[in-house]
Specification:
The protein contains 6 helices and 6 strands. By secondary structure, the chain is of the alpha/beta class. The protein has one domain: Maf protein (Alpha-Beta Complex), CATH 3.90.950. The protein has a 6-stranded mixed sheet with strand order 2-1-3-4-5-6. Helix 5 crosses helix 6. The chain is globular, with a radius of gyration of 17 Å. It starts with a strand and ends in a 5-residue tail after the last helix.
Amino acid sequence: MPKLLIGTHNLGKQAELRALLDRPELELLTLQDLGIELEVPEPGPDYATHAREKALAFARAANLWAVSDDSGLEVDALGGAPGLGSARLGGKGLSDADRRRILLELLRAHPRPWIGRFRAVVALASPDGRVELGEGICPGEILLEERGRGGFGYDPLFLVEGTGQTMAELRPSEKNRISHRARAVQALLPSLQSFIQSFGPG
């Protein structure tokens, strides 16, 4: 059975990727399973570069195929920020709740609606350097107040277009159908299927 490493230290992303990639013919492993504590720099200039570098680094460290993602929240009123810096808004050591408060402080000077989108790129990499990418976008709007108790990051503030619910109010099964990360994995499925088939039956 082929093994695939989920290359992220973020437990929220890890849970989502595990659900999105779960299939009986594939054994999913985490960095914790393998004792890998590697931190991969994210120098930019875009999500694809970050996802590619992380997937390659983890694939080589584990000598296994690996999948990693990079994602961010882009708000039009802020010129696309926080974007690549979404996970680091306000600096290191802050909680998700802290970053949500900072985002709202930045937005208060701008008229509503605060239109934006979540964007994700997921990379599938082999230890010998092959990489395939999938990208997904989920449009929506930033709310004044948090709603919902699910998800992580900016989910409680993000009203998903066409649903009437924030990302944090969606059932996990629904989020894993329409989220940016879900759409990126969907775009990557042909490559993932080819990887699985390369191992042959059994």
